[in-house]
Structure formats: structure tokens, C-alpha cells
């Protein structure tokens, strides 16, 4: 979800070729699609809380946030990030550039199918989503194949992208089964496929890539000094988290396939506790860097939400998983844990969007003028008042949804308006983010709207 300071170089060559990275316009297009998915997620959450959403609104909201918002941002940023970070040319660049639009369009189809009860839309959307994630995983793997040894970030990127790709196939199998085309085999039940699908996509995929990006951006944007402890935590998380996610997903899949033995539950519980411990560790590293670093920005202010949200989610979810790792109601740890995870992921992605969009536009439009004429700062490209308001709105949304989650799990009477307030606040935050990013593109981007939509360069730009 992160992006280092580098210029964009357009993709050229065929699917087997090597490129320095996707065009800046292509990366920004993916960021814009992620912001659009954020609007859609907030809208569905609001409709659900107001009782006017049809179909499987909860599942649609989860798909819009984790696949639409997070995975689209991942598919937009990783192709450029991995080439720059590893110092290796991007391989299979054209499929990688197509990944973000495929993920966004596919997620829209899946969410629409869930809301409308349309199985054809569900399967078509799932197919596009899976194609985008497989393209991303293949390109990332091919790019890093020649890089040795892999560092913690590269391990997390590889583990995360392949977890997303594998999880998308399980989701597609579930959708096909709902449409009357049974593709599950080996005694695998739909319930097992659903829980394993969610675990691989969210825990194994979104969080692994998010942790890798969060580690790097929290260090780069704050200027925090290097630490042996932080480096050790990064290395440990890059191994323990993927293994824990596989154990949790594998245990759930095996249990729902008729092998619900005590040993299977123990395997899943061990994986869940490991995942929770990693979330706490990630929060500790990021919060330490935010506290000791000398820089503050729209991105780093939102990373505080992730630094608090991930440990909260990890603590609540792992406590539940330690005793009931196979429970369908606790696939993400229960209502409170899910609200904390929503908030952590939303803060992380929105913070990264506030870095990616303005920084890329500033780089293309103003970087070569630095020292020759007055140029604006990156933060001057968007409205600071709107940025502060959408940060407050997102904070209110997360707190309200957490309180509503407590009301769903404990014998505590929580008024219904609390959840509705959280949903409306989420809408306000999404509108603010989208407005600011649109302002950056409209007033400062050097490309025409058509060029941005194509994700390619014109007028002599390579």
C-alpha cells in the first residue's frame, strides 16, 4: 500500500518483458479507483445501518473494503513499489498494470451480486477479481525471482499477493456453487471454503501486504531512526504472520471438510494466536516510529489509527480464536474485532492514498522545477481543512462502530443511532478523501482525464 519516492516510467514490452515500473498515471488511476471503492463501502455500510440495504449487505461491505479499497490500492502500488524497493526491473508489467482495474471492476460485480442476489454478476465479478490478483501475484513473483536474499518487506509482499490469489479462487468456487455450478471437491464444504477464503484474503493477503507497506512508510515518512528491535520485529512478522494465516485458514478448511478433530482446532488456534501477536507487534513498531519521528503529515496522522487498530484487533481476535478458532461468527474475531480491523485498514489505506496521490502528482508536475521557481509543497495540493475534517470523521466512524460492536457481543444496551452515526461519519470521511484526491488531479495533474483513464502517457511521455 505504500510507494517510495520515485518517478514513474511507462510500461513497455510484452508480457514477458522487463520494465522499470508502471506509468505514474497508471498508479494514480489505481489510487483513484481505491478512493471510489471507499465511497461505495461507506454507502453500503450506511444503507445497512439504516435498514435499507438488500441482500447480503454485510458481506458486500466487507468485499468493498477489503477487496475493493485495500486490494485495489495494493494492486496499484505494488508494481511500482516492488521494482523500486528491490532494485529489479518489473516483469510482466502489462498484466500488473491491468490488475488494479480488474480488481476494482471485479469487486463492484461481486458486491452488486451480493446486494441484488444476482449469481451471474457474482461469478463474473469474482472471475475479474481473481484474474487481477493472479496477475499481480505472478508479476510480483517474477520480478523478485532474481532478487536474493529477500528481506522482510519482499517476503511479506510475496506471501500476501499469493494469499490473495489463492483466496480469490476459493471465493470464486463459493460463488460458482451458489450459481449452481459445483466446483468444490475433496469433501470441502461451502462453509469451509468461505471461512478459508476470508482468512486468506484478509488475514493472509491484505494484512501481509499492509504490514510490509506500513513498515516502510512509517520509517520513510517520519524519518524515525533505524532500530535493531524494529528490524527484528519486521523479520519475525514476515515469517510468523504468513505461517499463522496458513495454519488458521488450513484448520478452518479441514474442519469444515469433515475433519473437525481436536488437533485441527488446535492448529487453527495456534495460527490465530500467532496472527494476533503479529498484529500487536506491528502496531508497536509503527507507533514507536510515529512517536519518535520528526515528520508529521496527512499520511502519518492516519497511521496512528492503524497503529492503534491493529493491536486492538489482534488482541480481541486472538483471544476469541484461542478457544473458538473454527466459529463462523468469529471468522475475523467477532463484531468488536471486525470494527477494529475495519478502522485499521481504512486508516492505513487512506493514509497511503494521501501519500500516493499528491506525491505522484507533485513529482510529475513540480519536481523538475524545484530550485528554479517557487513550487508548492505536497500538502499544498489539497485542502488542509477537508483533510482534517475527514480524519475526524473517520475517527468518529471507527469509535461508533466499535461501540456498536460491543453492543452486539455483550449484554450492553447500545442505541441504534450509534451505529448509524458511525456509518454516516464514514460516508463523510470517504467524501472528503475523494474530494481532496479529485482536487489534486483536476488542478495539478499534468495529464488529461482520458490519459489518466487509460493509465498511459501521451504527448511524448514515455
From TrEMBL:
Q: TM spans, by residue?
A: 26-44, 64-85, 122-144, 156-176, 188-215, 236-255, 267-291, 303-321, 341-363, 391-411
Q: Which residues form the signal peptide?
A: none
What segment(s) does the record annotate as region Disordered?
Answer: 1-21
Keywords attached to this Swiss-Prot or TrEMBL record, sorted alphabetically, are: Membrane, Transmembrane, Transmembrane helix
Q: What residue spans carry the Gly residues bias annotation?
A: 1-19
This chain's protein is named: Uncharacterized protein
Amino acid at each position: 500500500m505504500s510507494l517510495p519516492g520515485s518517478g514513474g516510467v511507462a510500461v513497455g514490452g510484452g508480457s514477458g518483458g522487463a520494465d522499470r515500473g508502471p506509468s505514474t498515471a497508471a498508479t494514480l488511476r489505481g489510487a483513484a479507483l481505491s478512493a471510489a471503492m471507499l465511497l461505495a463501502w461507506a454507502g453500503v455500510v450506511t444503507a445497512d445501518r439504516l435498514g435499507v440495504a438488500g441482500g447480503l449487505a454485510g458481506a458486500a461491505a466487507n468485499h468493498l473494503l477489503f477487496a475493493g479499497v485495500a486490494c485495489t490500492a495494493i494492486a496499484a502500488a505494488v508494481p511500482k513499489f516492488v521494482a523500486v524497493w528491490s532494485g529489479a526491473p518489473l516483469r510482466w508489467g502489462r498484466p500488473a498494470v491491468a490488475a488494479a482495474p480488474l480488481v476494482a471492476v471485479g469487486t463492484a460485480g461481486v458486491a452488486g451480486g451480493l446486494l441484488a442476489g444476482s449469481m451471474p454478476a457474482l461469478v463474473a465479478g469474482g472471475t475479474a477479481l481473481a484474474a487481477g490478483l493472479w496477475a499481480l501475484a505472478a508479476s510480483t513473483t517474477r520480478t523478485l525471482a532474481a532478487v536474493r536474499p529477500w528481506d522482510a518487506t519482499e517476503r511479506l509482499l510475496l506471501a500476501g499477493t499469493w494469499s490473495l490469489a489463492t483466496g480469490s479462487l476459493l471465493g470464486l468456487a463459493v460463488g460458482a456453487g451458489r450459481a449452481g455450478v459445483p466446483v468444490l471437491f475433496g469433501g470441502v464444504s461451502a462453509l469451509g471454503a468461505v471461512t478459508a477464503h476470508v482468512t486468506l484474503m484478509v488475514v493472509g493477503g491484505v494484512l501481509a501486504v499492509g504490514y510490509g507497506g506500513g513498515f516502510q512508510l512509517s520509517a520513510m515518512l517520519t524519518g524515525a531512526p533505524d532500530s535493531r528491535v524494529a528490524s527484528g520485529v519486521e523479520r519475525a512478522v514476515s515469517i510468523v504472520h504468513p505461517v499463522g494465516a496458513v495454519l488458521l485458514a488450513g484448520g478452518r478448511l479441514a474442519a469444515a471438510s469433515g475433519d473437525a478433530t481436536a488437533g485441527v482446532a488446535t492448529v487453527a488456534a495456534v495460527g490465530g494466536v500467532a496472527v494476533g501477536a503479529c498484529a500487536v507487534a506491528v502496531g508497536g513498531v509503527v507507533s514507536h516510529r510515529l512517536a519518535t519521528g520528526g515528520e508529521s503529515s496527512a499520511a502519518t496522522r492516519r497511521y496512528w489509527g492503524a497503529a492503534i487498530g491493529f493491536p486492538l484487533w489482534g488482541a480481541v481476535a486472538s483471544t476469541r480464536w484461542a478457544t473458538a478458532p473454527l466459529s463462523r461468527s468469529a471468522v475475523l474475531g467477532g463484531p468488536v474485532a471486525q470494527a477494529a480491523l475495519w478502522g485499521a485498514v481504512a486508516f492505513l489505506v487512506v493514509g497511503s492514498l494521501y501519500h500516493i496521490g499528491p506525491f505522484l502528482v507533485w513529482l510529475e508536475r513540480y519536481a523538475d522545477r524545484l530550485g528554479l521557481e517557487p513550487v508548492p509543497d505536497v500538502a499544498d495540493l489539497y485542502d488542509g481543512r477537508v483533510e482534517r475534517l475527514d480524519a475526524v470523521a473517520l475517527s468518529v466512524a471507527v469509535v461508533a462502530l466499535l461501540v456498536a460492536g460491543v453492543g452486539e457481543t455483550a449484554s450492553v444496551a447500545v442505541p441504534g443511532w450509534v451505529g448509524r452515526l458511525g456509518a454516516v461519519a464514514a460516508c463523510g470521511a470517504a467524501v472528503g478523501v475523494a474530494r481532496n484526491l479529485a482536487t489534486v488531479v483536476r488542478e495539478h495533474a499534468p495529464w488529461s482525464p482520458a490519459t489518466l483513464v487509460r493509465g498511459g502517457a501521451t504527448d511524448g511521455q514515455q
